[in-house]
Amino acid sequence: MTFVIDASVMASIVLPDESSVKADRVASILDAEGAEVPAFFLIEVANTLLLAVRRRRIDEETWRRLLESLTTLKLRVDAETHAHAWTTISDVACRYQLTAYDAAYLELAQRKALSLATLDSRLAEAARAAGVELL
Predict the structure, then answer these.
(1) Is the confidence at residue 1, as pLDDT, over 70?
(2) Is 128 helix (H, G, I), strand (E, B) or coil?
(3) What distance in Å separates the CA atoms of residue 76 and residue 91, rounded to the nearest whole number?
(4) CA distances from residue 113 to 27, 93, 129 in whole angstroms, order as listed
(5) Measured by CB atoms within 10 angstroms of the end CB, which terminus of the chain is less buried, N or C?
(6) What is the DSSP string of 11-43?
(7) Please, where are the H alpha helices in 15-113?
(8) Predicted local confidence at residue 72, as pLDDT
(9) pTM above 0.70, yes or no
């Protein structure tokens, strides 16, 4: 089962101080089957890890190890994210009171008829309202 994964779940998967049962379950599915992500996902996760270093949540050695481990994940980057930025994604953001970033995850799940893995309560609420299954 392919699904859309957001940066909140990925942070919980890779950052030692954010682990959760849900993230562990998603990580297992990700390892087995891969996931779809919007075009900006890699940069968003890289920034999350960079901020973790700056806030001394992880050291530079851990940061580099985590970045290396991320390159082995089965992630399919959506080539159409940008084509929907000023149309569907903006509409979803407005309709559900989301940031454009969060709306891009929801729009991708809707467009590809996939479930969504998120730890963001507002995004999860919007997904339920939009009829998108949560993983």
Answers:
(1) no
(2) helix
(3) 24
(4) 20, 18, 15
(5) N
(6) HHHH-GGG--HHHHHHHHHHHHH-EEE-TTHHH
(7) 21-33, 41-54, 60-70, 90-96, 100-112
(8) 92
(9) yes
Which pair of structure tokens corresponds to residue 10?
């990925």
Place of tokens 């954010």: 18
Report helix, strand or coil for 97. coil
Beta-carbon contacts of 73 under 8 Å, excluding residues fewer than 6 positions away, are 30, 34, 35
d(CA 135, CA 115): 6
Tokens of 88: 């569907």
C-alpha–C-alpha distance, residues 107 and 18, integer Å: 26
Quick one: pLDDT at residue 133? 97
The structure tokens 């968003």 sit at 44
- Dist. CA 101–CA 123, nearest whole Å: 10
- The mean per-residue pLDDT over the stretch 3-12 comes to 96
Nearest to 124 by CA among 45, 21, 9, 1: 9
Whole-angstrom distance, CA of residue 105 vs CA of residue 65: 26
Return the closest-CA partner of residue 12 out of 21, 4, 55: 21
Contact 36, 108 (CB under 8 A): yes
